[in-house]
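Entry:
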Amino acid sequence: MPPPNILLITSDQQHWNTLGVINPKIRTPNLDRLAREGTRFDRAYCPNPVCSPSRASIITGQYPSTHGCWTIGVKLPETTRTVGHELAEAGYDTTLVGKAHFQPLKSVPGSESIECQPTLRDLEFWRGFHGPWYGFDHIETARMHGNESHAGQHYALWLEEKGLTNWRDYFLQYPPVPNDKYAGPYSTRDAMTWDLPEPLHPSCWIAERTVANIERSVAADRPFFLWSSFFDPHPPYIVPEPWASAYDPDTMDWGTLEPGELERLPGHFRKTQEGDPDFSGYDEPGGHHLHGFHSHRHDPAEMRRSMACYYGMIGLMDREIGRILDALDRLGIADNTLVVFTTDHGHFLGQHGLIAKGPFHYEDLLRLPFVARFPGRIPAGTTRAALQSLVDLAPTFLATAGLPVPGRMQGIDQTHVWNGTVAAARDHVVVENRHNPTRMHLRTLVTATHKITVYRDGDYGELWDLANDPEERRNLWDDPSAAALKSAMLLRFARAEIGREPTAMPRVAGA
């Protein structure tokens, strides 16, 4: 039997319940098809709830504290060994199409970045550069979300090939101009209907180029590892018609904040509900602000509009994922292709009074949609509660390809869980969040029934009984009746931290 193909499809910042198979409010027929033909894991988690570190963990099988890309604006060293290197050396075509975000939007000595201005709009550079890069022998990449200013790279080249030579007119100006009409809260900009022609949307580019690269590998009779990395539904909330009006805002069930629920939580939670909160005490030296440290108070009607647009963005992406799945069928390779769909981290849609993301380790932000399909090897139409982490993807992909898992990887091989022969491969997951070195540095341990969050420099924290309080409304950290539970969870947390230590080199002698 030929080596199996591996296709990883990811969205960006997608709430775990935005799949039609579990949420009747949203229509995702192609992701639903994937779930019917594979197994959906409803307890999957990110290793870090911001983009760059989580994505770096996907390709390294390591936690951010190990691979070094510990938050956004920090570069993943280009010398880092990834799953792509291992698979390429075993004869695989290794390809990335879409969002990477391994490098910051600034280039300085020691942190040189080709994903920054002005390089990302230097189309002659991108015309001549397709890798190798981070273990991918071929890349076609971009890094904006929606109509953000930093559009360019291979996506801009594609737009020009399609005849849209004035593509810059559809994206925010760079640098931003004073009184720009799109200025305002990052996740609630007014322009939710994008005038970009729908066939030229980034999701369409990703699907088209994903299919083209799969066809290239099939024509060369080579197995492939391909990461198809979509930009949506990450804010800004904006999408072309008919998707912008596909959902009625009045039908959206925006999340809620119950009176008094934040009183039992650390102070930064409560500040989000102030009209003009002062978060300056949390900023790191150099003026870099934290995601989510702003007012989260917004008009409910505006929020429902945002949610309807968010659903529309997922709808367009789902259609394009269907194009990719259809191509596997057309090429006759679906039965020999492992397909995994997930996202890099979750998203707040009003739950607990929050929007988008930040250092708020609720399930809405940490938990992920996650589906794996491999006909004849992964049971179809099954839902499993076995804990998953994105750090597990790299070792599981290597095991699927019949390759050894290097000791430097900290993830767990999930192949026997995915094929249904083992109930679970892990009894906990760990989530890191080091958005600045000292002032906001937290880690969370999640088990099947409970969750605890510890802050590096605080005696406060969070303790949740997920079995009896699945919406996380009652923090038990300071509850005297939960003292024994807290002690037990802290011990599990300490053991988990020790257990995550990688063994990059085996011991080969007594001295």
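The radius of gyration is 22 Å.
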